[in-house]
Specification:
Two copies of one chain form a homodimer. Chain A has 324 residues and is α/β, with parallel strands linked by helices. The first copy, chain A, contains ten helices and 13 strands. In chain A, a hairpin with a 5-residue loop joins strand 2 and strand 3.
Chain lengths: 324, 324
């Protein structure tokens, strides 16, 4: 019996696929830009092509795959395998699970991308062996996932783990979701860019001013890190404040969830690394009760871009075992 | 074999005990004031006397008790059964679990009071049959408890479920815990009293002014409800705002936990009832994503003051079954 699994991670900007062998190693890979503004059928074709390329790269036959795991942004109907909707793609009630199963002719599971990423870190990355894990990914937005009692937790709603959309500053800045003062609205890369743009408009100087000509310009992690390292006072102040705000939300979640490990990833964390985490951690521990802080570890995600494909492939493998 | 369990609920103002028979009925009861300002040994004697009185009231013999369940405020060391500390009592690293076991000579479990109350509502009250439950008790403070996948969830820290201490208004009013802007600092009876006192100091009129002569005076649920019903505009505005703020925190928790049921209890909810819940619920559903709101039910706690003793007794019964 084959033990190879195809994992696919559909993101807003790129699609990645990899084949995982029976030992959990990635033996073949492929990736492409998502081009999410194109219609759903075209994006679907891209995803499938990337899947086939990864299989080819791994040197295995489709018939030898044991299963496929695919993850995607946005809420998923776990009964039908449909993507309900996604922020940056045209998928709306799109049967991504069933059609991927049809394409490869193998048992297929579908999972939310952040859940898959946290599950990857839990099974093969920074949170290996933990029982209760809070995963927080700080990038363009803020996503999260929960491992509770050693299993991925989706809640009765199947939509649990949306840690970017807890309110930490009621009446504060407007979030992409429509609310005011969400964690995502005060600590994501989008929030950092907004605050820098606002300060520049009010006459503050910054080396990144030239990168913010259009209202839609978003500073990359790399841009922010370069400005930070060059001593740009405005960027330093706003990035440090974002780390502190992220800690306020995460400290709140320590009090609710009492996790063993907090795994931190995403573009902002990757760009700023340990200093950002240290600042966030201090702020979180300030908020959390001693009992909920003292044994909680803060760690950096280890799998980077691979977390989603590894998590999706692992979930597919486990679903297969459970259904035998 | 006896199937009677003694449940004891040690609160900041009163101690309650009841005997639960094999069918889950409470067959004997007793209660007294805690007098928490007295030394720990004296308070401990009171608790034990109330336990004995409940047993007598039930007409059973101590030797016929199968087990004892006791719950108390504050963090508990579940390995030793010690209360680590409590806000309104002098217990500090007090061996409440072991000494209760010694007193009655029966297997004894100890649990946090809010966890026990939520567990009571889950097993015998408003959340019967649910799989994932968020319990929030709004009174002097705000406490909470979580049922996850059909079991009480304490987290790796054993201190999870502290929903009163998530930050909803960073930089906002100071909380009893030292942080600023906790849910408890914007939506508890203490927060409501503080806001009313502040407005009166600024010259606003209110029928409750006469009840707030001393800095330590705290308006009771009854006082607040009477003023609200008599058309006191200040009290109405501040109570309604507290309901909305409570909803902001609970909406955030819907996004994190995706519960099936939100059980609401505590003095403020009991005093203001369905109108308060309706206002809180609207605010929470405004915050939560559709997927996390649409199937979540908001219900009022059913067991009132009995939730703690019922929950503690039920946990004791289950611990007994598991250890057989």
């Amino acid at each position: 019996m084959s033990t190879h699994i195809l994992g696919i991670d559909l993101g807003g900007t790129k699609v990645m696929a990899a084949v995982m062998d029976g030992e959990g190693n990635l033996t073949g890979r492929a990736r492409a830009k998502t081009r999410g503004w194109r219609d759903d059928e075209e994006v679907f074709r891209t995803i499938m092509q990337i899947g086939h390329q990864a299989i080819e790269d791994a040197g295995v036959e489709i018939d030898h795959l044991a299963a496929v795991g695919i993850c995607a942004p946005g809420p998923i109907d776990f009964e039908t395998g449909y993507i309900i909707e996604t922020a940056n793609l045209k998928f709306k009630n799109f049967p991504l699970g069933p059609r991927t199963a049809d394409e490869f002719g193998r048992p297929t599971i579908i999972e939310n991308d952040v859940n898959a990423g946290v599950y990857g870190e839990f099974k093969s990355g920074a949170a290996r062996g933990a029982r209760n894990v809070l995963g927080v990914f700080i990038g363009t937005g803020i996503g999260g996932g929960l491992i509770i009692n050693g299993a991925l937790y989706r809640g009765s709603s199947t939509g649990a783990g949306e840690v970017g959309h807890i309110i930490v500053r009621a009446g504060g800045p407007r979030c992409g979701c429509g609310n005011r003062g969400c964690l995502e609205a005060v600590a994501s890369r989008t929030a950092i860019t907004r605050e820098i743009r606002k300060a520049i408009k009010h006459g503050r100087r910054s080396s990144v001013a030239k990168l913010l000509k259009k209202e839609t310009d978003l500073l990359s992690g790399k841009d922010l890190k370069a400005a930070y390292d060059s001593g740009d006072e405005l960027v330093k102040k706003i990035v440090n404040r974002a780390a502190k705000s992220a800690g306020i939300g995460i400290g709140s979640l320590l009090n609710v969830l009492g996790p063993e490990i907090v795994v931190l990833g995403g573009g902002v964390v990757e760009a700023f690394g340990d200093e950002f985490i240290a600042r966030l951690e201090r702020s979180a521990r300030d908020i959390a009760f001693d009992i909920n802080s003292k044994d909680a570890k803060f760690v950096r995600a280890e799998l980077g871009d691979d977390a989603g494909v590894i998590g999706a492939a692992t979930l597919a493998r486990e679903a297969l075992t459970q259904s035998l």
